[in-house]
Target: STAS domain-containing protein
Amino acid sequence: LLNAGLLAVWLSDQLVEGLTSGAAVHVLASQLQTMTGVKNVPHTSEMFGIVRFLICFVRNIRTLQLHTFLCTVICILSLLISKLIIDPIVKPWTKTKFPMEFLLVIFSISLCYFANETPLDLHLQIVGDVDAGMRAPFLPDFNKTGLIIFSAFSIAIVSFVIHIALAKLIAKEYKYQINVNQEWLALGTMHIVASFFGCFAGGSSLSRTVTSARLGTKSQLTTLVVVLILVIIAYGAAPLFKYLPKTILSCIVVVAMKELYLKICWSRVLFQESTVDFFIFLVTFTAVVLINVNIGLAIGVVFALLTVVLRSQWAESIGHYRAAMEISGIKVFRFDAPLYFANAELFLSSMH
Model:
């Protein structure tokens, strides 16, 4: 109703790439403990969590579990072989990608189940018991609205920005347009319905979104399939995943985001194209990685807006255009910026 989707205009491609690449680093760090078995490492969600995590990870690297690390290496190699070798081979005959992820899940569950409490048991971290069923709907307590209204507003803004950032990332890669107001409506409807079931505040998952895109999904019908499977699991099939190693899940998530990690390396190309856009990416990425996603996002948006103000105050001179020539007796004045209070004096001084 308020056409608030216009806010997404301020999310430039460079800011989105910096945000998603920085968030991908957080995801990688959060999965390292499961992939290596290193103990006594903190979470990365708090401020400067990545720095503390890396310090503790290096200090406790001697606690690395060899069998867990070996399982990680085998799983990652299998996934990369599937993505880089097998998929291109089978692509001419079928649109369906080779289901390496599904095979790894089935094989690892079977291996851990039959090897449990035997000499072949690798003692990998497993998912364990999964609670079955779902809470009955209930009316939320509106008496606490005043206590949580500001926190809820902050969560809503961050959730929306991250959601739109991921949507823009996927839309740019697959060359289609998104309706930002429709995304607002979808998020709002989801949170209203979820509030009657005691759910946490929802939003887009970087790992799940990228994994779904890499698996070749084309529409929201895939979500219906996922929901159906989750309902089946919640009401009876949950014990089947008890022996699923967490290492396998971590490897699937990390490999699915390999393109986001490569974008970090490719950012040097952006420096040659546009210095300002490169620094928008760099500032956003650095702030997200070193501080956290929420504050890093705010810093990235403020810095991007600051570059807009600075660029609008200085017009390009003739020295920036090699083909430009001055004609005797004629002066052409061009001001490459919108005229407003911040650059009005510069406009007059440049003309004089």
